[in-house]
Amino acid sequence: MSPPDDPTLEGVTSAPTVPRAVGRALDVLEVVLSHDRCNLTAVANEVGLTPTTALRHLRALEARGYVDRDDAGQFSAGPTMVRLATSLRDEGQLEWLIALTKPRLEALVESTGESSYLAVSDGRVATYVATVESPRAIRHVGWVGQNLPLAGTAVGAALTEVGSIATRTGAVEPDITAVSLAIATTWDFGVAISVVGPDHRLDRPTISNIENHLLIEVGGLIADLGLEQEHRHDLPA
Fold this sequence. Notes:
Elements (H helix, E strand, L loop, with lengths): L19 H14 L6 H8 L3 H13 L3 E3 L5 E3 L1 H10 L4 H20 L2 E7 L3 E8 L14 E3 L4 H7 L5 E4 L6 E8 L6 E9 L5 H22 L12
Antiparallel strand pairs: 1-2, 3-4, 3-8, 4-5, 6-7, 7-8
Helix pairs in contact: 1-2, 1-3, 2-3, 5-7
């Protein structure tokens, strides 16, 4: 039997060209950043490492300030990570995109009654970077900053087949439906817009209405960005 820390038993997700130790540390950091707070067990389970190995990487990241640990043993983004993130949030491409997208998200909320999100993707995961919340008492919130897998999710399907609307229920949270549409860009990250709400409100006619408004607002965003592309749905008259 191989020892517990045999690398063949651990679900490291880094690319083969990344040194194993570096890949493990990055995997651990990404798990922590995808949650507000998480404990050692959660990190180890998500990354596929033994608790001993996960703790070794967490301690190294903590020593450099990339993660922080509270008295209850919960890990979160550390001061170095916060500083780096703050330094990047200037008038760059992402901030420009968010500023242009916000009015479109607001229009989607007004026309659909559900929360709307802007997602970007590096080709491995999608991250929601901006939102406008539904005004309803029961509404979907809390996905800004969250990393989502591309496989099985609406935003992942939309990014995989740009121009086609994708709808998924329960892919990330139970009883939640997401309707997503991506746009083609020449940038080094993918872009998609999602409308997300409780499954009990999003029946087929309601989803069709969301699709129509999603096409309108994404079409407007494409024009705002100075891009040209054709959707695989016809815009409503």
